[in-house]
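Everyone, carefully examine this protein record:
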Amino acid sequence: MTDTLSTAGAAVSEATSDSPQSQSKNPQQLKRSIGIVGGTLLTLSCVTPASTLFVVVPDLFGSLGTATALTIAIGSVLCIAVAFCYSELGTLIPSAGGEYAMVSTLAGRLAGWLVFVLSLLVVMIVPPVIAMGTADYLAPIAHLNPSMTGAGVMLLATLAGLLDLRANAWITGIFLVLEVIAAGVVALLGFTHSQRGIGSLTSMQVAGTHGHTDTVTAMLVVSGLAIALFVTQGFSTAVYLSEELENPRRNVARTVLATLAISTVIILVPVVAITMGASDLSTLTGGDISTMVTAWSNSAVGTFVSLCVALAIINAGIVMVIQNSRVLFASSRDKAWPQPVNTLFSKLGRFGSPWVATLAVGIPGAILCFVNLDTLYGVTGVSVTGMYLLVAVAALLSRRGHHRHTHAWRMPLWPAMPILLIAVLAYILTQQETTYLLWTGGIVTAATLYWAFYLRPRKETRWLISLPEED
C-alpha cells in the first residue's frame, strides 16, 4: 500500500498565460502521484466485482443456470484480447484521454472524436446506473427511493473526486477490502453447503417452466457472452489514469492485466461456489444470491453482505467520477470545445484534481438518476460496444509507420487478438435493440456534424491531441 502514497515529486505544469498560444506550448499536465499498487486499487475498484456478482451474474443464472460459470470463464478469456489492446495502446499513447487519444493518434481525428463522444456517453451514464442500485442493498436497514439514493451517491462521489488521488487510493482500498470480504463470504458459504459436484459446472442445465429442466445449448452460451464479456469491464481505468501513473510505459500494462486477473478470480470463484451450493436448480436459476446467503447462514450475515455490496457501489461511483473527470480534462487540453469551455474544464483545484470537470460529470450524473433505467442501460450497451470496437481497430493500426518502433508494451498474437475482439463485438452490436441503436446513432450523427462544421475547419487550433511528457 505504500506505493499508493508515492509521488512524482513535481507539481502540475501550468501554462504561463491564458492565451491559446501559451496553452498550446505548455498544456496543463496532471502530476504523477500513483504507483502500481494505488493504480491497481483504483482500477480494480472500478470493476466493482461485488456489484457485478450481485447485479449482473443473477441475470446470467436466469438464462444459463449451471453453465453460468463456464460462460463467464469464456468471457474472461475473450477479455484478455480487450486487455491486450488497452495495454499496448495505453503504453504507446499514455494520455488521460484514454480511448479517444489512442484512436485519434492511430486512426485519425474523426475516429478519435467519435470514440470520445461514445466514451462521454458511457462516463455520463454508467455511474448513475450503478448508483441507483444502492437502495436495493440498503434494504435490510432502510427502504429508500432508488433515484434519490442514486443521486445522493453521485453527489458524495463528486465530493470525494475533488480530493487528492493519493487519498482516494486509500479510500477505495478500504472499500475494496470489504468488497472482497463479501465475495469471500459468498464463496465460503457456497462451498461449505455444496449440493452437487464440480461436474455440475458443465452439466448445462437451467430450470424451465412448470418445474422442468431445460438444456443450455451452445448458442445460448454464445449469446450469454454478450454479458459475460463485460463482467470484468473496468480495467480500462488504468488508461485514463496513465498521466498520473509513475512510469506509465510499464505500469499501465501491469495494472490492466493484473486487474483483469484479480477481478476474474474474485467474480468467478463465488459463481462456482453458488452453482455448487444452491439448494436446487430452481433456486440457482432464480439468482437471488442474498436469499441464498441468508439460507446458508442467517439474516445477520445476509445483511452484512448486502451492506458490503452497497459500499462497493459507492466505491465504484468515486472511482468512476475520478476517471471520467479526466476525460473532460484531457478533451479541454486538446481543444475539443470553444475556448471558454476549454478554459473551464482545464482548471485544477488545490489538490491537483480538475474540479470543474469533476462537477461536470457528477452533477449531471445525479440528474440522470431520475431517467428511465432501461433507456440508460440500452444506450450504454451500444456505446460501450462501439467504443471497444474502434479501440480494437486502432490496435490493428498500432504498428504502422513510426509507431512500429516506439517503445511500448506489445501484445502477443497480434493481429489475431484485435481481429477476434472485432468479431465478437460486432456480434454483440447485432444483438442490441433497434431503439437503442437509433438513439446512439442519432447522437453520433450530431457529433459528426459538430466535427464537420466546427472542429474540422479549425484543425490547426481545435482537437489537437497532446501527449504528456514522462517525468
DSSP finds 20 helices and two strands in the chain. The chain has a mean pLDDT of 79. Residues 95 and 243 are 6 Å apart (CA to CA). Residues 34-458 form a domain with the Amino acid/polyamine transporter I fold (CATH 1.20.1740.10).
